[in-house]
Design brief:
The chain has about 375 residues and is mainly alpha-helical. About 55% of the residues lie in helices and about 10% in strands. It has four domains: about 100 residues, Recoverin, domain 1, CATH 1.10.238.10; about 90 residues, Recoverin, domain 1; about 90 residues, Recoverin, domain 1 (Orthogonal Bundle); about 50 residues, no CATH class. The strands form four sheets. A three-stranded antiparallel sheet has the order 8-7-9, with helices on both faces. Helix 11 packs across helix 15.
């Protein structure tokens, strides 16, 4: 029998800031799907997926099969998603999971309509996923997500699967407060084939790491590029050992983690035996990012932890929608560390300094 709200642990009932924002992004995604379904005449999922692919393809000016953020933003503006910059950025970040700067829109379109290899969640399953992540972070801080991912991987049956009841027991023994019936319903979404009783490890761990906002991903990518001298997507662990100061990281995670331990964790999250991969580097900071609410703190962590610092332009850039008197509109990017302190007139002045004229209105 399903438990009532009175029976649930307090940490399960209260929503975190992370969950509240993710729900806004979910709502935007559902509204996007709704517009696609209207455009297709409320057809079947395959038709809807192809319709989304077709619409996104219009903004793929180079015909690469991928959209960068500016192209995606233009498409969302065309759908009249105005004044939702943060949510649009977060939705793009969700689709560009590995911070490459673009996403394959055909894959995303088919996944959104349950035709790809990505788990599809109903409302209750998604709520349980958010609560599970919040409880893991509450219990273990920045190390929590990483530790649980390693725990899940240790239960691998050799086929990238884990028995769902063994996983349930491991999570309970780790002190994760999530109602068992809700946990099992969530596991249904990660079952490689419905009814097998297993959970796909890659699907689950990918979702646990998800949630880094776009500015942080851009900044993290800049940090990796600083040491990827030959653009191979690989850096030596020695680069982290010699150039990463874990001072800020200790403030988040506690304890006395050394730069060598940071390098080891990055290695463990990648797929190369001796070198830190780009995905391993990004995944490490995804785990860290989930426990940091303050964007400025994350920026300082990245800016001050690496020898010589890194560029912070990614986190200071803001995109503004500019309306002109003839009804046309365009996206203008402003680089300013104090953007949030600017009033409307100051923003217009910054846009004008970039050579933009006939500014009738601006929207953030």
């Amino acid at each position: 029998m399903s438990k009532s709200i009175r029976d649930l642990p307090p940490s399960y009932v209260v929503k975190s800031k992370y969950q509240i924002f993710e729900e806004k992004v979910d709502e935007l995604e559902e509204r996007l799907k709704g517009k696609i379904e209207t455009a297709s005449g409320f057809a079947d999922n395959l038709t809807n997926a192809r319709k989304m692919e077709q619409i996104f393809k219009f903004y793929d000016t180079n015909q690469t099969g991928k959209l960068d953020f500016k192209q995606f933003f233009s498409a969302m503006i065309k759908f009249n998603f105005v004044g939702l910059n943060r949510e649009v950025e977060a939705l793009f970040s969700r689709y560009d999971d590995q911070a490459t700067g673009y996403f394959d829109y055909k894959i995303i379109a088919f996944q959104l309509y349950g035709l790809g290899d990505k788990p599809v969640f109903d409302y209750d399953q998604r709520q349980t996923l958010y609560k599970l992540k919040s409880n893991i972070i509450q219990g273990g801080g920045a190390s929590g997500i990483y530790d649980i991912i390693q725990l899940i991987r240790s239960l691998n049956d050799g086929n990238n699967h884990v028995d769902r009841f063994e996983l349930e027991r491991a999570l309970v023994e780790s002190g994760i407060e999530t109602p068992i019936d809700k946990l099992q319903r969530l596991f249904d979404a990660f079952d490689p084939k419905p009814g097998t009783g297993f959970v796909n490890i890659t699907y689950l761990t990918t979702e646990l790491k998800r949630g880094m906002i776009l500015e942080r991903k851009n900044l993290t990518r800049d940090a990796f590029k600083k040491y990827d001298y030959e653009n191979t997507g690989l850096i030596s662990p020695d680069e982290i050992i010699n150039n990463f100061d874990p001072y800020y990281l200790k403030k988040v995670q506690g304890g006395n983690m050394s730069s060598a331990e940071v390098a080891d964790r990055m290695l463990s999250l990648g797929n190369h035996p001796d070198m830190i991969t780009y995905s391993g580097f990004v995944d490490f900071f995804k785990c860290v990012s989930l426990s940091i609410e303050d964007n400025t703190f994350y920026e300082n962590l990245m800016k001050n932890s690496f020898t010589g610092g890194i560029s912070t332009s990614s986190i200071s850039s803001r995109r503004v929608l500019v309306f002109h008197s003839d009804g046309s509109r365009e996206i203008v990017e402003i680089l300013d560390e104090d953007f949030d302190k600017l009033d409307n007139n100051s923003i217009i002045e910054r846009i004008a300094e970039k050579g933009v004229t006939d500014i009738a209105e601006v929207r953030l």
